[in-house]
Amino acid sequence: MKRILLLPLFVLLFSCGGTPSKYEKLIADVVQTDRGVKIDLNFKADKLKEIRQISVADSIKIITDSFNAERNKQMASLEKTLSVFTESIEKAKAASRPSQTMINSYQSSIDKTREQIDALRKSVPGELTKYESRDTNEILAVVVRCTYTIDEPLTKKRVTETFDFFLSPDATIFYSKKRVKE
């Protein structure tokens, strides 16, 4: 009778001890899939650690910083263009026989460039609208650092690699991965 009661307990203990983390299965699937084809590379996760969570607030900051950097590049380019047109109009006005057509053309270009600069200054990232009604503490993704060993398909040698995997918090969606340089 005791054996019958202990048997399920042993099965439970051994099955829990060998249970992979909730991220390991998804990472193993990602690593062992090439263009939609699953390949058995004898995947073994050596180290697996959640290193960061990305919240709505983090995502908003990333989007805003990226947008501002791109906007600053565009504004610098437009400011340079504005400077060139301003110099050109000054030269056209100072010519011995000023061409009103050229002056008008440069002025039109200056006006359009200023309008573009003003529009850029007022612009905001359009992608932020999807976060308007969301809690800024909501976790959108997790970054899991995984050091794993696989059988390299071409060389047939065992290799160890370390990547940061960007995954959904429930470990159902893979977003991207980035090699960790050590």
Explain what the structure shows.
The chain has two domains: 82 residues; 67 residues. The protein has a four-stranded antiparallel beta sheet with strand order 3-4-5-6. Strands 1-2 form a two-stranded antiparallel ribbon. 5% of the residues are buried. Helix 3 runs antiparallel to helix 4. The protein contains four helices and six strands; from the N terminus they run H-H-E-E-E-H-H-E-E-E. With 182 residues, it is an alpha+beta fold. Helix content is 47%, strand content 25%.
Instruction: Give me the number of helical elements.
Output: 4
Low-pLDDT stretches: 1-19
Give the helix proportion (percent range): 40-55%
Number of domains: 2
What is Rg?
29 Å
First-residue to last-residue Cα separation:
55 Å
Strand order of the largest sheet: 3-4-5-6
Sheet/helix structural class: alpha+beta
Q: How many β-strands, per DSSP?
A: 6
Mean pLDDT: 89
Largest sheet: 4 strands, antiparallel
Q: What secondary-structure arrangement, pairings included, does this model have?
A:
Blueprint: H1 2-17, H2 24-31, E1 33-34, E2 37-38, E3 44-55, H3 56-94, H4 100-122, E4 139-151, E5 158-167, E6 174-179
Antiparallel strand pairs: 1-2, 3-4, 4-5, 5-6
What features would you highlight for this structure?
four-stranded antiparallel sheet, alpha+beta, 2 domains, disordered N terminus, 182 residues, 4 helices, 25% strand, single chain, two-stranded antiparallel sheet
